[in-house]
Design a protein that fits this description.
Layout: H1 3-28, H2 33-59, H3 68-95, H4 104-130
Helix pairs in contact: 1-2, 1-4, 2-3, 3-4
């Protein structure tokens, strides 16, 4: 496995797992299976892309490893965008109409708040996967 693959793989995995959980939770909430799969994919793809991008930026030294603030700032923008893609894309794919979420500014602000938790998890998982586990 190349160094680039080893660094970017966690970002791809994190996005994919987030999409899988989204699909499962959407099913549990009672949505039709087509809606759940679409919602999961619409979140997994942008999160995986942004995750790989974040990992690549860390590999290049743009976002320093071990420093949380630059990664948190990255996800402060990337996470709300990924959620917006999910919301609009799912509505477009399942409902056949383009529409923004209700109160889009409030939606984006809330997603920005949530992004901090996602950034913490992202850094934690990437540090564990890239370094081969804690203590190495």
């Amino acid at each position: 496995m190349t160094e680039t693959t080893r660094i970017t793989a966690p970002g791809l995995v994190i996005g994919s797992v987030a999409g899988l959980f989204t699909a499962l939770f959407t099913l549990v909430a009672g949505a039709p299976p087509a809606w759940a799969v679409t919602a999961g994919l619409m979140l997994a793809v942008p999160l995986a892309a942004f995750g790989a991008g974040c990992s690549a930026l860390r590999l290049r030294g743009v976002l320093r490893g071990g420093a949380f603030a630059p990664v948190a700032l990255y996800w402060l923008i990337a996470f709300p965008l990924a959620r917006l893609v999910q919301e609009v894309g799912t509505r477009l794919a399942v409902g056949d109409s383009f529409s923004l979420p209700p109160q889009p500014v409030s939606f984006l602000i809330y997603q920005a708040l949530i992004s901090v938790g996602f950034a913490i998890g992202f850094v934690w998982v990437q540090e564990r996967l890239v370094r081969g586990g804690a203590g190495r």
